[in-house]
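User: quick one, fold this
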Amino acid sequence: MHKRFHKTLFGQVVIALILGVIVGVVWPEFATKLKPLGDGFIKLIKMIIAPLVFCVVVHGICSTGDLKKVGRVGVKALVYFEIVTTFALALGILLAYVLQPGVGMNVDPSSLDASAMAAYTDRVAQATSTVDFIMRIIPSTFIDAFAKGDILQVLLIAILFGTAVAALGERGRPVTSAIDSLAHVFFKLIGFIVKLAPLGVLGAIAFTVGKYGVGSLKQLGMLVALFYVTCTIFVIGVLGLILRLAGFNIFKLLRYLREELLVVLGTASSDSVLPQVMRKLERMGIKDSTVGLVIPTGYSFNLDGFSIYLTLAAVFIAQATNTPLSTVDLLTILAISLVTSKGAHGVPGSAIVILAATLSAVPAIPAIGLVLVLSVDWFMGMARALTNMIGNCVATVVVGVWEKDIDRSLAHKVLDGEIEVDLNAPVAPEPVTENSVETPSLVPVRA
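Assistant:
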């Protein structure tokens, strides 16, 4: 017996989205005061992400028992990320070049307000330096990584810690067991926090509509519309094809993740659902070691939506400022974006900062032009976060298939709706071997 629509998380988030839009349109001043609801929800989730990622990755490495396999999964994930990110960057350039959303705006770069860009220029050097990016992965102290909540730093510590525990063999088993129990505590805590998702979505959407209004979309509507269309084409066309080759259907995966997708849409942050997404992928039949490595790594190395945004916005700014672009310029944008997109996560105001870094490395385009996209960045941020999240979920499924770390039969039953996954039910402990997949708690769907 299925729950009534308004009693499900999906239904509550849908209702919150609609109410948020209504409040933002009817009472804009009041709506802007609701921002703390969205910010508070995201902060609650983020405070759990670092220790949760640590526990999942350490337990995954220890339960795998094969350190070569862990390294193999990491390498395959990075290869996949690089290939798919390149497709995303190229698609952004192609559609912007063909459909020309900025042509006709005739913006004089000297007329733009340089002060609006001042807040981001100090961080551009940090975003473009490869050395700085690598050094940021290494935390100052063990605790510092958790205090800052930097996912890549926590991932590095978790891999080293998990490898050390696994190398201890029998003496490391108590540590593995304790960390597994701790992970279950964090997942239970996430279950409590997720119940606040409708409030978070209501606050975030009401603030966005109240502050910016639909009117802000008029001048740059073509850019926003094209960005959403490009992301849709990428998800259905590129990721859909990749998932089909892996033996799965993109629409069934999207339906399975519908609650998380709506929360991301409302909050414009994929961080807000990271723990639930990891849990759902595990319960779908993918080994926790694969989920624990691919998802956190993807948050810095597989930002598909962000990659589309970088190249699309760069070409748009060139068109809007009547800056002609040669084939060499387009290839330069693609090459620079391949580097700058990797340093996005963990940089404050990352979208605008990385875009500024990309433009500063392409002399042909006036960097001041990024002021043009500031007013619609939040609206584009929704599609960015959605595409990033979907891309990382697809990557996890693909790497799981590649490594044979997924129970195909179980995954198909879950995606087909034949089995309902209960995320709050405890997982029955059982011995884990190299080729085994942890059995999730399942509830057969009644006819």
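User: anything notable?
Assistant: The chain has a mean pLDDT of 79.
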